[in-house]
Fold this protein.
Amino acid sequence: MLFQRFLDDQSASVLPLLAVAAIPVVGLIGASVDYSRAAAVQTAMQAAVDSTSLALAKDAASQSAAQLTTNAQAYFNAVFTRTDAAAPNVSVSYSSNGGSQVVVNATSSVNTMFMGIMGFRTLPVSATSTSKWGNNRLRVALVLDNTGSMAQGTPTSKISALKTATHNLLGQLQAAASTNGDVYVSIIPFAKDVNVGASNYNADWIDWTDWDSNNGSNVKTGQTCNKWGCQNTYTWTPAAHSTWNGCVMDRDQNYDTLNTAPGTGALFPAEQWSSCPASLMTQSYDWSALSDKVDAMVAAGNTNQAIGLAWGWQSLTSTSPLNAPAKDPNYIYTDVIILLSDGLNTQDRWYSNATSIDNRQRTLCDNIKNAGVTIYSIQVNTANDPTSDVMQYCAGTRATVADASKFYLLTTPSQIITTFNQIGTGLSKLRIAN
């Protein structure tokens, strides 16, 4: 037979063999191209169904099956922009058995460019995403650098980008809350000090010792006379505490690395610092007030990340001074601190070198993570500074163990916006999705 004669042919020509061998080689190369295209489509589709399930979750209980389907298709079409796939079919289901959940499925196909010669004209692609909610609650402390260098940056300043990013993040967190109390947020602007609010001048957790020594005036209290003349006598009189601007320094060591409730030796020392940042805001779901607090931030002063972290932790703590709302035992809570800073530590109550401040901060971060709080740390490095070892160390959920996935090194102000969006998406999914 012809094929047998071909195999038995002992002549020297190899061209027929090469021609036959080229067919599977070309097919394999073409298959890799087609599969790569299909994989890219599938990745985009998975991201789209994840976003769709999160978007539907908040109002799913109040919508009919038809409304859910219509809304799912519309939202999916808005975020899935691949034109090299067939129009996807999107389906959605909602159930409340064992906790509320939305399941979104999408299927499509990609026309092949090379595999058609082997009989495979299309490759199927699909994605599914499940969002569950009902017993997960989220508490977030935003610890935000308000130092002078945050005013720098092009084409927009770092402080401006931070405000935009924080507004967007608040919107994401608000959308993740089905009912009031599902998500609480506190805002802690920091520089060398933290502003706890001048209205707290009568609070029993403020230490006035240093403040009274540095703020006041010599008041004439009498006159002493002798045969050579008279001399006035003066007594130092501290200024009224109501004139305090709200700033506090680090607590005495080692309370500066703990969230111990204030008491003997554990008070917060007042300081009339000229670069006092905007006052902090305790845990709240008043989204309008939180947004106003973001707008009030101003860049000034030196960097002390540790005091910002300490007050971020205090804002998540149910005891004085900030008294976070009590946690309902019927819910599972996730506590998070998001630390953003644009530089290395430069000054705290005791030191003006980064190493000494960093050492205090490492201990503080260990204690925070031991308490079950997750830390995301973001370094905005637009000045070609060294990468912050202590910010890398603090990132994560386990003391003494750094989690690289929760440390972000940025080089432009605009990356603050995209990074906050990424973290916000993850936190939203953490609250309502499994």
Notes: The radius of gyration is 31 Å. Confidence is low (pLDDT under 50) at residues 17-22. The first strand starts at residue 89 and ends at 95.
